[in-house]
Design brief:
Blueprint: H1 2-20, H2 31-48, H3 50-110, H4 113-138
Helix pairs in contact: 1-2
Protein backbone atom coordinates (compact mmCIF):
# COMPACT_ATOMS: atom_id res chain seq x y z
CA UNK A 1 0.00 0.00 0.00
CA UNK A 2 2.79 2.42 0.96
CA UNK A 3 4.79 1.58 -2.15
CA UNK A 4 1.74 2.27 -4.35
CA UNK A 5 1.36 5.67 -2.65
CA UNK A 6 5.04 6.38 -3.24
CA UNK A 7 4.70 5.43 -6.89
CA UNK A 8 1.65 7.67 -7.26
CA UNK A 9 3.52 10.54 -5.59
CA UNK A 10 6.54 10.04 -7.84
CA UNK A 11 4.30 9.97 -10.90
CA UNK A 12 2.54 13.15 -9.78
CA UNK A 13 5.87 14.93 -9.22
CA UNK A 14 7.15 13.90 -12.64
CA UNK A 15 3.98 14.96 -14.40
CA UNK A 16 3.96 18.31 -12.57
CA UNK A 17 7.60 19.08 -13.37
CA UNK A 18 7.17 18.13 -17.02
CA UNK A 19 3.99 20.24 -17.16
CA UNK A 20 5.87 23.23 -15.67
CA UNK A 21 8.38 22.99 -18.51
CA UNK A 22 5.78 22.38 -21.18
CA UNK A 23 6.84 18.78 -21.84
CA UNK A 24 4.76 15.60 -22.00
CA UNK A 25 5.87 12.57 -20.02
CA UNK A 26 5.65 9.39 -22.06
CA UNK A 27 6.39 5.74 -21.37
CA UNK A 28 9.62 5.72 -23.40
CA UNK A 29 11.25 8.70 -21.60
CA UNK A 30 14.77 8.08 -20.39
CA UNK A 31 15.35 7.06 -16.76
CA UNK A 32 18.12 9.64 -16.67
CA UNK A 33 15.61 12.33 -17.50
CA UNK A 34 13.27 11.10 -14.75
CA UNK A 35 16.18 11.04 -12.28
CA UNK A 36 17.03 14.62 -13.24
CA UNK A 37 13.42 15.59 -12.58
CA UNK A 38 13.56 14.01 -9.15
CA UNK A 39 16.87 15.75 -8.47
CA UNK A 40 15.36 19.08 -9.39
CA UNK A 41 12.34 18.40 -7.20
CA UNK A 42 14.63 17.55 -4.28
CA UNK A 43 16.78 20.64 -4.82
CA UNK A 44 13.68 22.80 -4.96
CA UNK A 45 12.33 21.29 -1.76
CA UNK A 46 15.67 21.74 -0.02
CA UNK A 47 15.84 25.40 -1.08
CA UNK A 48 12.28 26.05 0.08
CA UNK A 49 12.87 24.39 3.47
CA UNK A 50 16.48 25.46 4.06
CA UNK A 51 15.72 27.51 7.18
CA UNK A 52 13.55 24.78 8.70
CA UNK A 53 16.24 22.18 8.00
CA UNK A 54 18.95 24.35 9.53
CA UNK A 55 16.83 24.88 12.65
CA UNK A 56 16.07 21.16 12.82
CA UNK A 57 19.78 20.35 12.43
CA UNK A 58 20.65 22.70 15.29
CA UNK A 59 17.92 21.15 17.45
CA UNK A 60 19.18 17.64 16.72
CA UNK A 61 22.77 18.64 17.46
CA UNK A 62 21.72 20.30 20.75
CA UNK A 63 19.73 17.20 21.72
CA UNK A 64 22.73 15.01 20.87
CA UNK A 65 25.02 17.18 23.04
CA UNK A 66 22.57 17.01 25.94
CA UNK A 67 22.19 13.24 25.55
CA UNK A 68 25.98 12.82 25.39
CA UNK A 69 26.40 14.88 28.56
CA UNK A 70 23.67 12.92 30.35
CA UNK A 71 25.20 9.61 29.30
CA UNK A 72 28.67 10.75 30.39
CA UNK A 73 27.27 11.81 33.76
CA UNK A 74 25.55 8.46 34.26
CA UNK A 75 28.69 6.58 33.24
CA UNK A 76 30.79 8.63 35.71
CA UNK A 77 28.31 8.00 38.52
CA UNK A 78 28.08 4.29 37.77
CA UNK A 79 31.87 4.05 37.47
CA UNK A 80 32.36 5.74 40.84
CA UNK A 81 29.77 3.46 42.46
CA UNK A 82 31.40 0.40 40.87
CA UNK A 83 34.87 1.44 42.07
CA UNK A 84 33.56 2.06 45.58
CA UNK A 85 31.86 -1.35 45.61
CA UNK A 86 35.13 -2.93 44.45
CA UNK A 87 37.01 -1.16 47.25
CA UNK A 88 34.43 -2.42 49.76
CA UNK A 89 34.74 -5.96 48.40
CA UNK A 90 38.54 -5.80 48.55
CA UNK A 91 38.42 -4.54 52.13
CA UNK A 92 35.99 -7.32 53.08
CA UNK A 93 38.14 -9.95 51.35
CA UNK A 94 41.27 -8.56 53.00
CA UNK A 95 39.58 -8.63 56.42
CA UNK A 96 38.34 -12.19 55.83
CA UNK A 97 41.84 -13.29 54.76
CA UNK A 98 43.38 -11.62 57.79
CA UNK A 99 40.87 -13.37 60.07
CA UNK A 100 41.63 -16.72 58.42
CA UNK A 101 45.34 -16.20 58.98
CA UNK A 102 44.73 -15.25 62.62
CA UNK A 103 42.60 -18.38 63.14
CA UNK A 104 45.27 -20.53 61.49
CA UNK A 105 47.93 -19.04 63.73
CA UNK A 106 45.72 -19.49 66.78
CA UNK A 107 45.19 -23.18 65.95
CA UNK A 108 48.90 -23.87 65.67
CA UNK A 109 49.48 -21.91 68.87
CA UNK A 110 47.13 -24.14 70.88
CA UNK A 111 48.86 -27.35 69.89
CA UNK A 112 52.50 -26.66 70.43
CA UNK A 113 55.29 -28.91 69.24
CA UNK A 114 56.04 -30.00 72.81
CA UNK A 115 52.53 -31.38 73.23
CA UNK A 116 52.94 -33.53 70.12
CA UNK A 117 56.36 -34.68 71.28
CA UNK A 118 54.97 -35.70 74.66
CA UNK A 119 52.10 -37.59 73.05
CA UNK A 120 54.60 -39.41 70.85
CA UNK A 121 56.77 -40.28 73.87
CA UNK A 122 53.79 -41.63 75.87
CA UNK A 123 52.57 -43.73 72.93
CA UNK A 124 56.09 -45.07 72.39
CA UNK A 125 56.45 -46.00 76.10
CA UNK A 126 53.07 -47.76 76.10
CA UNK A 127 54.02 -49.76 73.01
CA UNK A 128 57.34 -50.67 74.62
CA UNK A 129 55.62 -51.81 77.83
CA UNK A 130 53.04 -53.88 75.94
CA UNK A 131 55.82 -55.36 73.84
CA UNK A 132 57.79 -56.38 76.95
CA UNK A 133 54.71 -57.86 78.60
CA UNK A 134 53.92 -59.80 75.44
CA UNK A 135 57.47 -61.12 75.18
CA UNK A 136 57.52 -62.12 78.87
CA UNK A 137 54.20 -64.00 78.72
CA UNK A 138 54.63 -65.57 75.30
CA UNK A 139 57.96 -67.15 76.03
Amino acid sequence: MASQMQLDWAKDVCVEVFREHGLKLSEDDSIILVAAVFRRALDTWLCEHREELAKHTLDVEQTAREARAAIASVICEEGAAFREQLRTDVRAASYAAEQAVQRALAITGRHSQWKHRMEGLVVSLLLFVFGMVAVFYLR
